[in-house]
Amino acid sequence: MGKKEVKNQYGVKVGDIFYEKHTNPCYFYQVVALHGETKVEVCQIGKKCIAFDGYYKCIVPLPGVWISRACICKVQGEQENPGIFLLDSFPHWATLDRAETYMELHQTEDFPFYFRDSYPEIAEQLDLKTGSGVYAVDKPFQWLDDDSRAVIRYPDGREVETVFRELMCSEKITQKMRDDEAKMRKILEELDIF
Questions:
Q1: Kind and range of the H or E element at 52?
Q2: Is 112 helix (H, G, I), strand (E, B) or coil?
Q3: Considering the domain boundaries, does residue 169 fall inside one?
């Protein structure tokens, strides 16, 4: 006789993603196993930036790119909007979300901040929520010195091609920051995480 298939009472399935939007930056947790009708096992997963304006990044989760150990959580909340409560260094509430892209606010120390610092006259025109912004062409934006192609889409429909690293020329990006990022990049590439 076969093993009975486990079904979550909230309709959560293995592979589903919970999104924690109440923190900045936001975090994603992928369901790796079901435990009975009310519990799930999740791992935090990576994310990448595919666009930005002067304040926001448009990010996508990276299913299967694990960046934490698994933990078991109880699914709770409303049937239409279930969530999980996680405890590590501080409490997290993440909700089940099946969107493809997410917005993340960055007022300091990230791509939108450096872009806004270097090109304020362009940054003030762009708004991802209405479709204008800096969009990745050939690969997501990850490192300050990426040579990836980008296109700036203006509100009036104009598009200008550029290279991502040319937009990251803020004087607020110190050599120490670039050196630290280069070290981190080497470690992650050796681990084959991203």
A1: strand 39-52
A2: helix
A3: yes
